[in-house]
Prior knowledge:
Residues 241-268 form a coiled coil. 60% of the residues lie in helices and 7% in strands. The protein is of the alpha+beta class. It has a six-stranded antiparallel beta sheet. Strands 2-5-1-6 form a four-stranded antiparallel beta sheet.
Amino acid sequence: MQELEYIVLTHSTNILKPLPNSLFGWIRVVYSISDEEILSCSGLDAYVFLSFFKMGIKIFLALAIMAIGILSPIRYYFTGSYDKDNISMLSIHNSKESKPPEFSEDFPKYLWVYPIFTYVFSIVVFYYLYNFTNSVLRTRQKYLASQNSITDRTIRLDGIPKKLLQRHRLKKFIEDLGIGKVMDVKLIYNWEPLEILFDKRKALLDKLEYLYASQYELDIDIYNHEKPPAVNPLRSRPIDIPRAEKLIKQYSQELMDLDEEIRTIQNKFDSNLSTIDVKLYKDFKQVTSAFITMDSVASAQMAAQTVLDPRVYKLIVSLAPAPKDIIWENFKLTYYKKLLKSYLITLVIILSYGFIIFLVVPLTSLLDLKTISKFWPAAGEFIGQSKWLTTFVTGILPPLLFTILNLSFPYFYRWLSQYQGYSSNSDIELSTLSKNFFFIFFNLFLIYVAAGTFWDYMSYISDTTKIAYQLATSLKRMALFYVDLILLQGLTMFPVKLLQISDFLILNILGKLFKSLFLRTPRNYRTYYYTPQIFDFGIHLPQHILIFMIILIYSVVSTKIVTCGLVYFIMGLLVYKYQLVYNFVHPPHSTGKVWPMIFRRVMLGLVIFQLFMCGTLALESAILLSILCSPLIFVTLFICWNFEKYYVPLNTFIALRAILNPYDFDKAFDYDDQSFNSEENSETEDNMPSDVISSTSGPIDESSFLLDGHHIERNLRRRKSTIDEEREQFTDYTYPYLIDPLDGPWVGFSGDMVTMVDYKRVQFQNILEEGGNARLRDDGDHTIISKALSVSEWE
C-alpha cells in the first residue's frame, strides 16, 4: 500500500523525485536529496532529526579513521591485539585485593596513547557538535524568519488576572506595553459541555454509518493502483431489514436533535469578538489563558521574551503552538491539577523502573556462562557443550530480548505523556523523548553495567573501592554485548524499517482477515488505508542517541564498535531520510526544539566516556594518565554551560535581525565585521541589498524597523511558503467545535470526494456556500451530498 501513502503525500505542492524499481537504485536517489528538499517536503523537525545522523556519520568516520590508522596499529604493536577488550590480568588481580592502585610512573609507556586520543576524540566531538549546532540554528532562524503564519505571530498568555479577562482590556494592556499592535485576542473557555455533545454525536455517526453499510453493502475498490481508492454503496436500493430501518430513523432523529443543541451553543459564541457571555451561559467557565495574535512576527517574539508581571504564575508569556497542534481539553486543567498529574505519572514511571529491574537483572546473567552455571548448573553445563549455543545465549539472545523489551515500553511512556496535561502534541512528543531516553539509558546502560556489582554487593560492602573496579570491569565485559546490539539494530532493524513489514501486515494481512471487526464503514476504510503513518521522535530517537553514547564511550578501547557505529548511522540516515520524505508525516510542529535535547545527551555521553577512560587508566595503575584526563570533564561541563546560556535562546526564539532580512540571511551579517570608518564602508552600503536600507530620509533604528509590520508583510509576500505554513493556512485559534460543519454520516468516498447523508431538518446554507466543492441529490427523507474533503495529509 505504499502507492496509497505516496498519493497522499504528493497532495503537497512539493515534487518528490521518483524512486527507481531496482533493488538498490533508491539509495542513490535518497542520498541525493538536499537539505532544502527535506525542508520543503518534510519540514524543519525532519531536517533536525536527520542532522543528528549526519553528525554521527562525520564524527564516527573521523574516529574510525584515526582508530584504524593510528590507534589500533599502536595497540597491536605493543599488545598483539587490535582492541583493548579486556583489562590486563594484573589489573584484575589488583582489583581483587583491598589496596587501591598507587600513584606510580611504572606503567607501560604505550598507555600514553589513551589520554592523547581521549583528548583528540573529545575535540572531534566538540568540533562537529558545534558545527552542526550552528548549522541547525542558522537553518532554523532562516526557515522560521521567512514565515508569517498566524502561529508565528501569536503568543499564549497564562495566569491572566480576572480584572484583565476581557477582550478589550487584554488588548489594551498588551498594546500599552509598546511591543506592537494586537490583531486578535482569543479567550479560552472550558468547553466540556460541548465536548460531551460531540462525543455523543461521534457515537451516533458510527452507528448510522454501520447501519447504512449493512443495508447498502460496500463496493470496495482500494487495491487498484491505477485509480484513486474508493469505497461506495454496492446497491442502489437498501436491503429490506425492518430493524435496521427503524434504528436509522431513531438515530437520525437523535442526530438532528443533537445538532440543533450544538448549533444553539455555537450561536452563543460571538465569532467577531471571540467571546461568550459567561454570566448568561454559566456552563462555560472562563480559563485564565488566551491566545493573542500580534501584527508581526517580531512583535510576537519580543512579547514572548518579556516578563509582564512581578508576581509568580501571573501573566506568563510563551510562543503559541500551531492551532492544529493544540490539545484543547487540557486547557481546563488548573495548575495544581497538572502538578498532581505530573507527580502521579512520575510515580508510575518509578514503579515501572522497579518492574524493569526484575526483568533486566536476570537477563544480564545470560551475558556470562559462569554466572549461568552459578545459578543454574545444569543449564550452564548443557550450554557449554556447544560453542554455537554458547554464542547464541551469551551474545545474540540478550540483545534480542532487550530489543523486544525496548520496542514495547516506549509506547507505554507515550501513553503516559498524553495524560500529563500538556497543551500541545509537540510538548507530548518532547516529553515522550525525555522519558524514553531515560528508560533506555536506565535499562540498557545503568542496570547492565551495575548488574555485576549487584550480585556481589554483600561481599563488597566492607570495601567500597572494589565497587568502582567492578563497574569498570563490567564496562569492558559489556563490549561484546554492545557490538551485537549495534549490529542487531543496524543490520536487522533498519532493513525491517525500510521494508515496512508492519505496513504490509497491517494493511494487507490484518486488513483483509479481520476487516469484519474494524473495517465496517467507508470512514473506517479511509482512515485505515488512506492515512500515512505518523513519525514520532519520542519513539524513534532515544535509542539512537544512546547508541551514539555507547559508541563514543568505547571509541578509544574498541575500534570494532566505532566501525559498527559508523555503519549503523549510515544505514539510519538512508532509511529515515527515505521514510520522512516519501512515507511518513510529522504533524507536531516543535520548530526544531529537539536539538538541545540531543546536545545535552551527547554531552552526557562525552562525560561518561571521559570518566570511563579515567577509570580504565586507573585500573591499569596509570594514575598519572588518569589525572591528566580529568580536566576534560570540567571542559565538557563548561561547554554545556556555554550552550545553555548562548545557544538555547536561539533554539527557542527567532532573532529579530533574522526577521528583518530572512532572504539574504548570511549576506546581511557579512558586513558586521567591517570597519565603520573605513573607505570601503561607503562601497559596502552601495552594494548592500536594497531591502536592508530604508528609503526614508530620517534616522532609522533596528527596533522601529522591526516593528514596521507593513515592511515585513511586504517582504514576506515575495517568498515561497514553507510546508508548515501550508499546513496552517486558513487556521486560527478558534475552538474547533465552534466552527465544525456538522457533516452527516458517510456512505462512501472516491478519492477526496466523500458522499454523506444530510437530513431534511438541516439548513443547506453552508452546503450551498461550498459552490463547486459540494453536490446535492434529493432522496426523499434525506439528501445525499458529495463533498470534497480537504484535510491535512495525516488526518
